[in-house]
Amino acid sequence: MMFQNIEDTKIQLEKAGYICSESIATVVFLAIATQKPVLVEGPAGVGKTQLAKAVSQALGHKLIRLQCYEGLDEAKALYEWEYAKQLLYTQIMKDKLSEILAGASNLSEAVDLIANQEDAFFSERFIQPRPLLEVISTKDTSVLLIDEVDKSDPEFEAFLLELLSDFQITIPEIGTKKAVKIPIVFLTSNNYRDMSDALKRRCLHLFIDYPDRELEFEIVRLKIPQIEKTLIKKLINTIHEIRSFDLKKKPCISETLDWAQALVVLQISELSPDVVRKTLNVICKYKTDTDLILDNMDVISKKAGL
Amino acid sequence: MVKLVLDFVFTLREAGFKISPSEIIDCTKQLEIINLLDEPCFKTVLRANFVKNIKKQDKFNIIYHLFFHEMRNDASISQSVPLAETIDAIYAEIKKKNMNDNALNLLLDFLKGNPLKYLETVKNIISKKEKKDEGRLIPLVSLSDILSAINNINMEVEHFLKVRQFVMTWNNRKAVAGFFSQKLKKAEMLANNQPLNIKKKSDEVVYEKRIDQLSEKSFLSLTNREVRQMQEIVAQFVRKLKDTIENRRKRQKKGVLDLKKTLRNALRYQGIPFKIIYKNKPKNKGKIVALCDVSNSVWEASRFMLNMLYSFQDCFSQVRSFVFISRLCEITKTLEKHEINRALDDVIKDSRIDYNEKTNYGAVFDFFYDNHLDVLNKKTTLIIIGDGRSNFYDTREDIFEKLKDKVKRIIWLNPESTMFWKTGDSLIETYRNYCHKVCECQNLIQLEAFIKTLVI
Ligand SMILES: Nc1ncnc2c1ncn2[C@@H]1O[C@H](COP(=O)(O)OP(=O)(O)OP(=O)(O)O)[C@@H](O)[C@H]1O
Ligand SMILES: [Mg+2]
Predict the structure, then answer these.
(1) Which of A89, A201, A210 is the best mutation test for B, with the most CBs of B within 10 A?
(2) Which of A220, A260, B74, B309 has the fewest other C-beta atoms within 10 Å?
(3) Is residue B199 part of a domain?
(4) CA-to-CA separations, A289 to A234, A285, A296, B228, B321, in angstroms, rounded
(5) CB B258 within 8 A of CB B278
(6) Which residue has a Cα nearest atom 25 of ligand 1?
(7) B263 and B403 share a domain?
(8) Same domain, B61 and B86
(9) How far is B23 from chain A (nearest CA, A)?
(10) How far is Cα B411 from Cα B288, in angstroms, rounded to an integer?
(11) Ligand 1: centre distance to CA B69 (Å)
């Protein structure tokens, strides 16, 4: 399956539970149409990871996720030889090996004989596939999500470059494997570290910022249908006012959703400054932030029209 | 279409964007599948291909607006052949007459569709005006230069067209005159800082842009708000550097196979080495003692230095810190108790510090020598941060020299510009003789560079 056009992309993604802006839809559509990876950047919690999930769901492709972290290396991302399994097999087949070695008259001959059997030990049987090998091996198109790529080390990034240009990998003992179908690739980054130019060159760049009021309204309505429209409006106005402060961590979409959910659970249907004060801990995760907002509650409630 | 994109890329490159041919190819390919009449979509495609740095989004938006909105509507005329020639002739004429007028040359470039230098100049003029920043060099081109140059060009054009009254048809003359007056009006508006209805930038982007500026800003001129923003920048720097350190450590650790342990472990599996064990190298250890001047002029620099030192605490075997104005007091405990930024706020409220007194380096070193000598040893790096302005009190060089002999090295960070080091009551040149290093540490960039050398 593919998206027909930008409009269709929007609709399909919405069906998969993701509301996207015009620019998100455009970039996603083009990336898939031209088989380019997308590098998604933006503040925490604006739905970067969710976007990849929604795309995989909308297109009915399998989602293969590689979560990056410091110290992630090729072995953990691509494949690992099952060293223990190989040893175990050797142990079990000791007798068989002696049989093979029986004909050898000296050490170097024995080594040659063993070398002839190498293929048996370095075969796919002893490979443990990790996400990237999985992507290359699956027969259908898959969605590859390389999450928080900024957390990975520069060497790993260099390795990704190679993968993203050719979609093929080389396992020295077995040979080169090429992807059957080019996967749809999303890389997400929180800008913890700047990615290299080379990586950026290979990707389309998508910057997701905090959504505007309209978009956020739609998101809340989609995710929490039972909540009153007027309440959502007030809630979002308040959130936007709060975001305009210089906070340590600005509340993101998931916090808006949590807040809305909390109000539903508490059966609160009217957002007053008092309610905001009492439920503030849902959206502000730092004490200093909470204090700052409490100090400015009057201004916020006035601007948000509470 | 390709030509248009190329022109745009050229403008972007002028403005410092790095754009590779492959990105241009990608972009043109993608433009083929979208509806070109849908402008937001068009813009998104350009942005997705050409701006891969969040910090540059803002700059892109401005250039996009200038290129496709401000400059486009008149491009058609300057490119229609007969008039283009006339316009070029006018440019040449004006240039011939006023070879060396800077403002005029900038404007001509602007008219020809290379607006960047002009915009830069105008921006500088405006920001100078807003800051009322004296003591800097006066810009090469002033606002009045620009306005008079605009006037000049207007007159030249008028004159030029008048001379050709019977050579050119009236509607062509009108078109040319219109071309110039429209563009010059725009130039004038820009110079007078009237916004060209460019959409207000989102907070986030402005903030990103500020990081660059802030890092270069002198510690002595920060506002409260900027201090808060700097804290965030520092936090980011710390995270990155910690990564680097950690990576190095990991690589060092991996280095050598620990044969003994591997073999011993293998015994459990009938001598088969199931688990391979590497040697770990010990951490690089050293002790840091920081003496920080917290008098008004130096506090901000001290604060960020302390902030960073404490963030890297685990790279050192110990960090002890003292602050002083005329008297010394230890703040190690305060700093260890709370989150660092909060702790630093507590430090300035410390009742033991008397802000009315004058800085006295000699007395401070003396006191330190008498009371805290035990914190120093041969593995200690003593960092002093201060401007070395001791209000003409005694330097106590002798004590300072003795301190030097007790430690591994003394590093002095001075938040004052090197230009002023030899002036007034600055003693930095005297103390320099006993320090292993004296660095200027005026802004975040310099501080970061120093911390890097310290921990790596
Ligand atoms: N456009 C959207 N439509 C629907 N839900 C959204 C949208 N954006 C965000 N969300 C919700 O916000 C939550 C957080 O999103 P997600 O985890 O993808 O953020 P993120 O950008 O990956 O954050 P981080 O940088 O912390 O990893 C998701 O669980 C999702 O429910
Ligand atoms: Mg995520």
Answers:
(1) A201
(2) B74
(3) no
(4) 20, 7, 11, 12, 29
(5) yes
(6) A44
(7) no
(8) no
(9) 7
(10) 11
(11) 35
Q: What residue numbers bound the domain in which B221 lies? A: 204-269
Q: Are residues B422 and B297 in the same domain?
A: yes
Please indicate, yes or no, whether residues B324 and B423 belong to a single structural domain of this protein: yes
Which residue, chain included where needed, has tokens 């920080």? B292
Q: Which ligand is nearest to the CA of A24?
A: 1
Q: Residue length, chain B?
A: 456
Structural domain count, chain B: 4
pLDDT-derived band at A39, boundaries 50, 70, 90: very high
Instruction: Output the domain CATH number for residue B300.
Output: 3.40.50.410
Shared domain check, B131 and B19? no
Give me the amino acid identity at B168.
M
How many angstroms does the Cα of residue A136 sit away from the middle of ligand 2?
Answer: 23
Residue of A nearest to B18 (CA): A197
- Ligand 1 contact via A67 beta carbon (within 6 Å): no
Q: Whose CA is nearest to atom 4 of ligand 1?
A: A18
* Residue at a domain's end among B130, B165, B191: B191
Ligand 1 atom closest to Cα of residue A148: 27
User: What is the ipTM metric for this complex?
Assistant: 0.81
Which residue in B22, B41, B52 has the most chain A C-beta atoms within 10 A of its own C-beta, making it the best mutation to test that interface?
B52
Measure Cα distances from B193 to A239, B130, B134, B180 in Å: 33, 11, 20, 20
Same domain, B64 and B79: no
Say if B280 falls within a structural domain: no
Residue that terminates a domain, selected from B53, B70, B87:
B70
Whether B320 and B445 share a structural domain = yes
- The answer to whether the CB of A261 is under 6 A from ligand 1 is no
| Residue B278 located in a structural domain | no
Tens digits of residue pLDDT in B269-319? 777 777 777 776 555 568 889 999 888 778 888 888 888 888 887 778 888
pTM: 0.63
Give long-range contacts, CB 8 A cutoff, 24+ apart: B275-278: B278/B253, B278/B254
Chain B residues closer than 8 Å to A10 by CB: none
Residue B275 lies in a domain: no
**Is A217 in a helix, a strand, or coil?**
helix
Q: What is the pLDDT of residues A259-276, one digit of tens each?
A: 999 999 999 888 888 999
The residues, any chain, with a CB within 8 Å of residue A63's CB and separated by 6 or more, are A52, A53, A56, A57, A142, A143, A145
